[in-house]
From TrEMBL:
The lineage of its organism: Bacteria, Candidatus Woeseibacteriota. Pfam families: FAD_binding_6, NAD_binding_1. GO terms for molecular function: 2 iron, 2 sulfur cluster binding; flavin adenine dinucleotide binding; metal ion binding; oxidoreductase activity. The keyword Oxidoreductase applies. Residues 1-102 form the FAD-binding FR-type domain. Its cofactor is FAD. Keywords: 2Fe-2S, FAD, Flavoprotein, Iron, Iron-sulfur, Metal-binding, Oxidoreductase. InterPro entries: Cbr1-like_FAD-bd_dom, FAD-bd_FR_type, Flavoprot_Pyr_Nucl_cyt_Rdtase, FNR_nucleotide-bd, MRET, OxRdtase_FAD/NAD-bd, Riboflavin_synthase-like_b-brl. It comes from Candidatus Woesebacteria bacterium GW2011_GWB1_39_12. This is FAD-binding FR-type domain-containing protein. SUPFAM superfamilies: Ferredoxin reductase-like, C-terminal NADP-linked domain, Riboflavin synthase domain-like.
Length: 203
C-alpha cells in the first residue's frame, strides 16, 4: 500500500521520526512492525530499498504510522529516507510481528532497551496509558551512551511521573562525553543494576 509522509520530527541526537499516512486503514498491535520500500535510493546501499521498522506510535494515537530510527551516514537507505519531502510516498507492507503487548495478560513487566531499541516500548507504554490498563505495570530501563541520545525523553519522563503503573529509569554509559550535567544513573545495564532497580517494585 502507499504511505504518504506527512511529518518529520527530531527525537534526539541523530534520531528522527517519520510519520506516514496509509492510503487505507491499518490495524496494528503495539510492538508490530512495517516494511517500507523507498521509491528511489539516492545513495548506494547493498541491502536494497526495503527495511522494516517497529511502529513507534500506539494504535490509540490515530491512523498515522510513526517510524523512528537513527540516521546513519553509512546507510544509503537511511540517508535517502532522511531526504524524503513532505507528501512523498513510499510503499508499505504490514503489520507484522508477534512481539506485542497483550492487554489480557495483566502483571508486572520489566522492559529493557538500549538506544533505538526503545521503539516498541514507547508504543507499549502509550497504549497502556491510553487504555487505562492500571493492572499492568510497566517498568522501563533505558540505556544510552549520552543524555542527548535519549529518544522520547520528555514523554517518558512525564509518563513516569504521572502514572503509578509506569516507571521509567534511564542510564547513560558515557556521561563525560555530554555537554549536559547528568545526575541520573550511570553505566550499562547488567545483572547488578537490574537487581538494584527491580528489587523493590513487586517482582
Amino acid at each position: 500500500m502507499k504511505l504518504k509522509l506527512v511529518e518529520k520530527r527530531d527525537e534526539a541526537k541523530g534520531t528522527k521520526s517519520f510519520f506516514f499516512e496509509p492510503e487505507r486503514e491499518v490495524n496494528w498491535l503495539p510492538g508490530q512492525y512495517f516494511y517500507y520500500t523507498l521509491p528511489n535510493i539516492r545513495y548506494p546501499d547493498a541491502r536494497g530499498a526495503t527495511r522494516h521498522f517497529t511502529i513507534s506510535s500506539s494504535p490509540t494515537e490515530g491512523k498515522v504510522l510513526r517510524l523512528t530510527t537513527r540516521i546513519r551516514q553509512e546507510s544509503g537507505y537511511k540517508k535517502s529516507l532522511d531526504e524524503l519531502k513532505i507528501n512523498d510516498e513510499v510503499e508499505g507492507e504490514g503489520p507484522n510481528g508477534t512481539f506485542i503487548l497483550d492487554e489480557n495478560q495483566k502483571g508486572n513487566y520489566v522492559l529493557i532497551a538500549g538506544g533505538i531499541g526503545i521503539t516498541p516500548f514507547r508504543s507499549f507504554i502509550k497504549y497502556n496509558i491510553d487504555n487505562k490498563l492500571s493492572d499492568t505495570k510497566l517498568h522501563l530501563i533505558y540505556s544510552n551512551s549520552i543524555p542527548e541520545e535519549i529518544a522520547f525523553r520528555k514523554d517518558l519522563e512525564n509518563w513516569s511521573k504521572s502514572f503509578e503503573n509506569i516507571k521509567v529509569e534511564m542510564t547513560v554509559s558515557h556521561p563525560e562525553e555530554s555537554r549536559e550535567v547528568w545526575s541520573g544513573l550511570v553505566g550499562r545495564v547488567d545483572e547488578q543494576m537490574l537487581k538494584k532497580l527491580i528489587g523493590n517494585w513487586g517482582y
